[in-house]
């Protein structure tokens, strides 16, 4: 009898549900995440505005917007706070391929959504574009959390992932509607604030779906540390924003030059 109790006790000790720490690196990650999300949205929406005014370079502008909004404003903004997630008693490892796919999914989804929405506000196109972007964000969040591995097992609460996807669809549709229907500065600022808050809501709801059962007898988790993947993406994301920011700043000068009388435009002569 004693041996049976000892064996059962040892089994319970070896396999136990673990509590997840959300902010193991500190609460400053919340502010950084919101800032990254807002910056990505700001640059991306500026690219969308210029995409409306250009027929020839519209795909280029929308591509830049997709990278800024999807790659930086959504993916990077959800990967940054994920750095603070920890489980006492084990290390977390992540599958790099799954994380890479999640990044590609959201960039493609945002690009497709922007193409569907078009230049003018039309309800069917707005709903379709918001749905595509929201579903893409939900799939991205699922891929992010499913890439986690621990010494034991990882469980996902499906209904929370569904809720995260619903939030993403609502936020995407709402942001697109506000951005297209209201041209005043306050509305643009409101769009960015709504976007950043919505991305945070999607992230925290999705991560809440994670559950962990630790097993001392299980193999060590495979994969890489999240920091080793996110930090290079953070650097690349910062560099990726530099090009559209420069293009946005230069583009107004080109439009102003186009309105000047050709006779008054400066003539550039080759150096002799």
From TrEMBL:
Q: What positions does the domain MHYT occupy?
A: 25-213
Source organism, top-level taxon = Bacteria
By its UniProt entry, which Pfam families does this protein fall under? MHYT
Q: Which residues cross the membrane?
A: 28-48, 60-84, 96-117, 126-144, 156-179, 191-214, 229-251
Q: Which GO terms describe its cellular component?
A: membrane
Keywords in alphabetical order? Membrane, Transmembrane, Transmembrane helix
In terms of PANTHER family, this protein maps to:
DOMAIN SIGNALLING PROTEIN, PUTATIVE (AFU_ORTHOLOGUE AFUA_5G11310)-RELATED (PTHR35152)
Quote the protein name from its UniProt record. MHYT domain (Predicted integral membrane sensor domain)
Which source organism? Nocardia cyriacigeorgica
